[in-house]
Amino acid sequence: MKVLVVGSGGRESALALSLAQSPSVTRIIAAPGNPGIAEIAAIHPIPADAVEDLVSLAAAEAVDLVVAGPEAALAAGLADALAAKGIPCFGPSLAASRIESSKAFSKTFMQRHGIPTAHAKVFGDARQALAFAESMNDLPVLKASGLCAGKGVILPDSRGEMAVAIERLLAMGGRGGEILVEERLSGEEVSILAFSDGNDWTVMPAARDHKRLKDGDRGPNTGGMGSYAPALSMATAEELAEIVIAPAIRGLREEGIPFIGALFAGLILTKEGPKVLEYNCRFGDPETQSILPLLESDLGELLLACATGRLRETRARWREGFAASIVLAAEGYPEAPKSGGRIILPETTPSESWILHAGTRRVGDDLVASGGRVLDAVARGGTLDEALGRAARLIESVRLEGSHYRRDIGSRGPLDGAARASLAGGRSPSAYAQAGVDIDAGNRAVELMKGAVRSTYGKKVLAGIGSFGGMYDAGALKAMAHPVLVSSTDGVGTKTSLGLSLGRPAGLGEDMVNHSIDDILVQGARPLFFLDYVAASRLVPETVAEIVGGMAKACREAGCALIGGETAEMPGTYREGELDIAGTIVGILEREKALPRPNLAAGDLLVGLASSGLHTNGYSLARCAFAGVDLEALHPLLGESPADALLRPHRSYLPLLNAALDAEPSPVKALAHITGGGFVENIPRVLPSGLDAVIRRGSWKVPPIFELIGQLSGAGEEEMARVFNLGIGMVAVVAPGDLARFRELVPEEVFVIGSLEAGSGKTQLR
Predict the structure, then answer these.
(1) Residue 363 to residues 32, 36, 47, 376, Cα–Cα distance (Å)
(2) pTM, two decimal places
(3) Which of 216, 246, 299, 313 counts the highest number of beta carbons within 10 A?
């Protein structure tokens, strides 16, 4: 599609760059753009608030989508004018944009819909405003009601400054000269942004902006001197979004002005709970510069889905890691920025790093400063320190006389601790909680896991988390000759206790899903969807969210939807500190491809695929064996700590066996998942009564963790083979003539560990 990006700042540079990387986008047009955007887009010198000219340009270019960057374009009614011509716009209507363009409207809107915010009053008269401000116990925050390009907020340092600040803000002329006198709140600040199509919404990684000009949060307020993301875990961002994004989207819809676009909530994490400082009706600047580098999905598809009411069909996926942006400001910014200075950029930009133009223009062959915030140095990294280091090195390589940038962007790191404390401060215990069941904890667990769960959804999920029942579109079954549904239910077992005691719950969720996938894979089925069950004497929301996050990770990797589940708090049923994890999986196969096949015969080979460790079996014995052993210390026999070896997640064999199972004809006659009961009990489950499985000892190398358990517990070879997988987690039955082809189709080393012989359906160890 063709996309028109409206605006010329660093935010629009970030949008254009991300759209240029979108497979769905074939051409980008920008108005008015800047020299950096000009490298990837066609530029038209039309101001962002010139609505008629922008609509004419969009129509003439036959664009498929207009992306409104700055608030000025939206406050001028760009989205409404485009809608009248039938042109999709990512950005709210003039009426909905009042959530930013009028702080007076925004404040009363929050009060109407119960959204937590600071107490404030609106004034159009300087003397009345000053009298109210002087009556307050603490120094207030003063805000112009209208749009002021990020400069309409003043925090006076003394009562003597208040009168001057009030007169100054009234003179800015925002919405008829109205200002807000607002109580000053204390706490960490964080930005929560979400995509919205007017009905559905999905949160972006939380970002942290740095408003003050100088290091240490000193100096005047600016439009923003840099940002980093994520500033919170996605689970915490989801929980905050339920408090500040969901009611705003719902409230605007109920008032007949549905919000389409990026809704931005600037929050402060107070001791009494999170509160909204302001809403913005568009992507933040500079937050966008650090959020979009983390987007893994197609931005073009996401924005168009919002503009056309189809966000439910297109969910956002985000990369692991961090991104940071540092702003280079011109001399004199923000009061009287100097323009015209020559900018010298580095000849090359390192990988995972970008320079985004903001206030720049071309004068002949020279690039010069044309605004206060000149450019952004943006970088991505596996850790926050890595991202910040790359951004700092990049901005140090830019030359602009008299320019300034902050050197402490991101110094406070992720804010989850402050967010959790703030969320806890906003709640009071209920009678039910005092009786042992904390409903709020259960709800919080659901909110924390919601983002991870939604990340597994595709178009076939019609209803998932938050519904009474999951709904999955089974239309694909029509294309199958004889579809068969396969299901399995299982639990993680006592590995759960070990994972919790060592503070490593996430892997337990992966265990549950991968174990279930392997259980239906042995019948030839591929997973469709999964449902989880987590129960405890007392729910710890963060722990539950980590477990479900692990489930979501495993589901995403398998192309399986985590469609629903149950989280239960049951004091008295479970002992304090205990937690139980179970799950149900549903998969599908063509009946003619069901395993095991009826042609198993004596002489067929047993081919083993390596396990990743104990998987989810034998932990009662393993825990006894390691009683008194320091599980976190490096063990010489293992080359790692026992905790690492014992808690390595259960492996899924789906990616290894896909090609072999899909081959025509498939070389796989049967599969046996080596779980509880080890070799002795699991292989006979797929054999006819007249065949034995003969396992040859020494035909593969047993991993040292099993040797160590045998030594510490005193268990003999027979018992070890009955309890553990001993390094072989899946066994395939293959005819001798198909072994070479099976090896070609499986992308790692496999081991011939035995064969089938005439017998009575048992396992023999030789």
Answers:
(1) 16, 14, 19, 20
(2) 0.60
(3) 299
